[in-house]
Amino acid sequence: MSNRLRHFRQTLTAAALAAALASPLALTVPGVAAAQERGGTMNIIVQPEPPILVLGLNQQGPTQTVAGKIYQGLLTFGFELKPQPELAESWEVSPDGKVYTFKLVKNAKWHDGKPFTAHDVVFSTSKFLMETHPRARATFSKCEKIEALDDYTVQFTLKEPFGPFLQAFEVSSAPMMPKHIYEGTDFKANPANATPIGTGPFKFKEWNKGSYIHLVRNDEYWKAGKPYLDDIYFRVIPDAASRAVAVEQGTVQQTQFNDIETFDVPRLKGLPNVEMTTKGYEFFAPLSWIEINTRNKPLDDKRFRQAMMHAIDRKFIRDKIWFGLGRPATGPVNSVTRFHEANVRKYDFDPKKAEALLEEAGFKKGSDGTRAKVRLLVMPYGETWTRLGEYVKQAMKRVGVDVTLETTDAAGWVNRVSNWDYDLTFNFVYQYGDPALGVSRTYVSENIRKGVMFSNTMGYANPEVDKLFAQAAQTNKDDERQQLYSTAQKILVEDVPVAWLLEMEFPTFVDKRFKNAVTTAIGVNESYDSVYMVKK
């Protein structure tokens, strides 16, 4: 099949899907259409409370969950990470992978009634997000030009091919911002930030700080017949026990991410009024690890780091601390996302192998049985991480490594880790559907940036890994990218810059009366224009 024919079919398929989503005929599924009538209020936990709701200015998890109902991107992504239409009804990619042309929906409006056009896309991607958004800035700086060919066609011309470019148009990565409100202003100080205006199915109504955020149905929404819900309340509940009680009593109808402590999950799964799913996190594909400051002794020795991998039982962590949620990690790329390489060095749980590596590296046991001492800064994200710290301390003690646990609050943790003031800590990051977007940032040496969290805070540097990540990002041929990423993963798993633990799964609890809450790979951060309440 020629590239031109393939692109034509992709465009036709995307346009057909967009039409189906927008058409009232899409609601005429036998036995289902009657249930999808309008009405109902959904209460969703948001924790912690977001600092702001303008998604172009803040991409923290709680902001994404709330603002994903207000703002939209050009694309969304299915569970298999294939792009699906949103504000773009179709798109084409040139054979050389350098020109991306998007056809936009023609009936979308901003919440103040102004039309959404290609000029908003150009403004969002070439001006607003370039100034305010760390990931979008890195992506769209690769463009030679961004231009509106007409009111409903926008074209991006890249300086060179960039394999994951389409993944950059998901709502948290590139939320569309209204040009008529922000152009020529100080984006961060614009008074409109207090009343966010997007194109999404729900409009901002009220924010009672410390209590709730109230969104109401957008009656001028561009998808015919949607949304179904009258409104959504995001309830702020700081205490973990109170969040679990709210689910049990039915006062909230949804939780997500870290809302529920893992040890509460088995009990809540048995409730008759809720369903639990771990789907909807595929685009983020969070992967947890023990972060290692490779500048510090004894952690600068690769054999010590390899010994850590053998000393820790990842299956025990999954089963006894995360209560079955997740999969033991084998390397830096989550197996549910693109370009995972399974054929890497394996680190089975084997304390004897760990001790042999420590002996080889010259870490002999002292009179008290201790070979070395390290500090572990426990991540302050709940009781589960505290329990994990206790387990790691015990596991390392078994092979002769004395671990001192240190604690701090969330702000202190970020400050210490980003400024390299630690030996070990826990961390997990999102992968955003492609290694070029969410994986390479952790391991490339150009991203060793003191004071910047979620960068290469370990200080790991390998010129070959840098080269492989750069080459893989600069081609749009999947077979070439797979080969390059596979080689990079094999090197990283040999070097152990971090001790990978789990490919994480988060439990999303949803009241059984509410349908279609999780329908794509961005899950609870979706627009919720298809969510409906079954009325008894």
Structure description:
Helices cover 29% and strands 19% of the residues. Strand 14 (372-377), helix 11 (383-398) and strand 15 form a beta-alpha-beta unit. The strands form six sheets. It has a six-stranded mixed sheet. It contains 16 helices and 20 strands. The protein has helices spanning 3-22, 61-67, 118-132, 134-140, 179-182, 240-249, 265-269, 302-311, 314-321, 351-360, 383-398, 410-418, 435-438, 440-443, 463-473, 478-495; strands spanning 41-46, 75-77, 83-85, 88-93, 99-104, 143-150, 153-158, 202-208, 212-217, 231-236, 274-277, 287-292, 327-328, 372-377, 401-406, 424-429, 498-503, 508-511, 514-515, 532-533. It starts with a helix and ends with a strand. Belongs to the bacterial solute-binding protein 5 family. Residues 1-35 form the signal peptide. It is found in: Periplasm. It holds the Pfam family SBP_bac_5.
Task: Offer a few descriptive terms.
4-stranded mixed beta sheet; alpha+beta; 16 helices; 20 strands; 6-stranded mixed beta sheet; 536 residues; disordered N terminus
Residue runs with pLDDT of under 50 for 5 or more positions: 1-34
Look at the helices and sheets and give the structural class.
Answer: alpha+beta
Mind summarizing the main beta sheet? 6 strands, mixed
Beta-strand percentage? 15-25%
Proportion of residues in helical segments = 25-40%
Q: Total strand count, please?
A: 20
Assembly type: single chain
Distance between the termini: 51 Å
Could you report the average pLDDT, rounded to the nearest whole number? 91
Read across the widest sheet, the strand sequence of neighbours is 13-17-12-16-14-15
* SS summary, helix count: 16
Shape, please? globular
Radius of gyration: 24 Å
